[in-house]
Amino acid sequence: MNRSIVILSVLALAACHKPATAEVAAAKDKAVALPPVKVQTGEVTVQMMPKYLTLTGSVFADRNADIAANVSGRVTNTYVERGMPVKAGQVLAVVDSRAAGFQVAAAVAQSQAAQTQVALAKQDCERADTLYAQGAIATAEHDRLKAQCTAQLYNANAAQANADLANKSASDTIIRAPFDGIIGERFINVGEYVQPPTRVASLFAVNPVRMSLSVPEPAVSLVKEGQELMLEVSAYPDRRFPATVRFVSPALRQNTRDLIIEASAKNDDLALKPGMFATAKLAVGEEEQPTVPVEAIRSDDTVRRMFLARQGSAFEVIVRTGEKKDGRVAVLEPLSAGEKVIVSPPPGLHDGSTITQ
Description:
Strand order of the largest sheet: 3-10-13-12-11-14
Number of strands: 21
Distance between the termini: 66 Å
Strand content: 35-45%
Order of helices and strands: HEEEEEEHHEEEEEEEEEEEEEEE
Largest sheet: 6 strands, antiparallel, barrel
């Protein structure tokens, strides 16, 4: 009886698989029945292509500063917000100037009083010189009077310096931008009490921008001031930013054995932001590489594909691409010159498709 059950089970399994096998066969027949896809082909050619040294680094502002209040007092007005462009000398904020005005008045009064004392001291000195020449006073008395005149002059100079300092403090109550740039952050609000080291705002000059790049030790001899670079950032994958090497460090960093250089790039549209990670390509010559028409490459995010035309079928391959030149792009995979590639692959073309030209 057990043997009968086993035989029935085998027959049931065979019956279940039969339709599936029929469906696979039908699918194959259907695939074979698909008409060939008409394509246009081009050839792989080997030609001289630019060779680049790829460097990495960060973008930062040409100039940036956290602007200090440089004065004590209560903030009465603010005139900037984050992202606002400003010119050198433009007012950013104002601090209550009444106390500074009183200090200026007091310092000016003290300076004027000191100047009056100097005038009197000069008259005493002239009189002492006359009396000394006539033998009317002793040498010691003459020297004492002359020392008093000199001391009064020093006192007057000190009083004038105090007056100048008070005037500067009064002018510092109007806080201005030290250079053209864009406000990154405003740190104060109306009503706050600030002191000289208090941060008022951060200011960034971002046109041009700088880029700090790390050069590995074996490539140090390839870098020098004035060379042209092409910058790339992930925010704009299809765009390149020309830059120029401006500064080269005189020494390698001991821990990492690399050389730091700085490049400068125009940033008229402010696309480059300080803090961005970037790569830079430095031309160091040319080398022979297999190339295909640019239209043969299909990009899906970071993956690049193309189709080879082999024996009437499309053969899909994933490739790494290099530089572009004269409508062609270098392929960093081993390809033979003269091999056929499909240009502008039509929709629906896939690996194994039958093709015709």
